[in-house]
Amino acid sequence: MADGGAVRRVGTGGAAGLWRPGDQILWRYRENGGAGIHIARPVTVVRDEEELLAVWLAPGTQCVRPVLADGTPPHQEPLRTRYTKPRTVVPGRWFGTGVLKLARPGEPWSVWLFWEPGWQFKNWYVNFEEPLSRWDGGVDSEDHFLDLCVYPDRSWGWRDEDEFAQAQQDGLMDVSVAERVREAGRSAVEVVRAWGAPFADGWENWRPDPSWAVPLLPEDWDRTPAHLST
């Protein structure tokens, strides 16, 4: 297990290229319409198998996030100019409760679990994105704006449909990609209706190992991956 709070430089580990529980890696997103990294979150590996990667984003983790050039958080900018004004990135802390992230290889979404204080389960959050690309130090993707919230009573609802539409209007997503995202959305809804994995797998009862240190953000968080695989 990593010690001292720093991100341990782990390889993809073994013939299967899998990480071990307790390994600390980066979960990153490329900027939309560009090649740079604009979101980087150090996380701790919970489980890494051929069919599932599960990681824990601990409260207080130092991350990198995008802001407008004047420092305005994107969600505070009017939608019509949210994606056209110049941006930069800044460090910040992940406040509130932690997040458990689940991703299956090749799937165009990841599922995040949120809790209220005191481990009262709140909801699952389906984040539509490019299937994760694994590299020696973590995983990379590109966010596709559209999201789906799923609640403990098995009800669900779309999130950020307005941002999804605006991103297309501003040229950040072409017609073919947008249709792939819509198809992914339809597929995810079918999984929810059937109450398939991971919703039926009991992850809401999971808890992090109390001995895990909160990872530190490495200085080279935006480094080019030394190795890429899918």
Write the SSE topology:
Elements: E1 24-30, E2 37-49, E3 52-57, E4 62-68, H1 79-82, E5 87-93, E6 99-103, E7 109-116, E8 120-129, E9 133-135, E10 138-150, E11 156-159, H2 161-169, H3 175-194, E12 228-229
Q: Strand order across the biggest sheet?
A: 1-2-3-6-7-8-10
Distance between the ends: 25 Å
* Count of β-strands: 12
* Percent helix: 10-25%
- Detail the poorly predicted runs: 1-15
Strand content: 35-45%
Write the H/E string, N to C.
EEEEHEEEEEEEHHE
The biggest sheet, with number of strands, parallel, antiparallel or mixed sense and barrel status, is: 7 strands, mixed, barrel
What is the number of helices?
3
Question: What form results from the Cα inertia axes?
Answer: globular
* Gyration radius, rounded: 17 Å
* Average pLDDT figure: 92
Q: Structural class of the secondary elements?
A: mainly beta
InterPro entries: DUF402, FomD-like_sf, Ntdp-like
Pfam family, one: DUF402
Keywords: Hydrolase
Protein name: DUF402 domain-containing protein
